[in-house]
Amino acid sequence: MTQTLTVEGMSCEHCEQTVEEALSGVDGVESASADRDAASATVEGDADARNLVAAVEDAGYDASA
């Protein structure tokens, strides 16, 4: 299953990597990619959207599913 989150606050490649790493640490995530230009992150897997949003917010960014 593919889920797309809106992620605000990414301004550089390092930000994208931080978000991807945060998402990858959530149970059920098979892969994650972040795009600062689109202000979004795409996740493959069956992770709960609330857990994905929480992981991004814990990394210091605003997120919504």
TrEMBL record:
GO molecular function, one term: metal ion binding
Family annotation (InterPro entries): HMA_dom (IPR006121), HMA_dom_sf (IPR036163)
This protein's record includes keyword Metal-binding: yes
Keywords: Metal-binding
Keyword Metal-binding attached: yes
Pfam families: HMA
Chain ranges of the HMA domain: 1-64
Gene3D superfamilies assigned: 3.30.70.100
PANTHER family to which the protein is assigned, alphabetical: COPPER TRANSPORT PROTEIN ATOX1-RELATED (PTHR22814), COPPER TRANSPORT PROTEIN ATX1 (PTHR22814:SF287)
Entry protein name: Heavy metal transport/detoxification protein
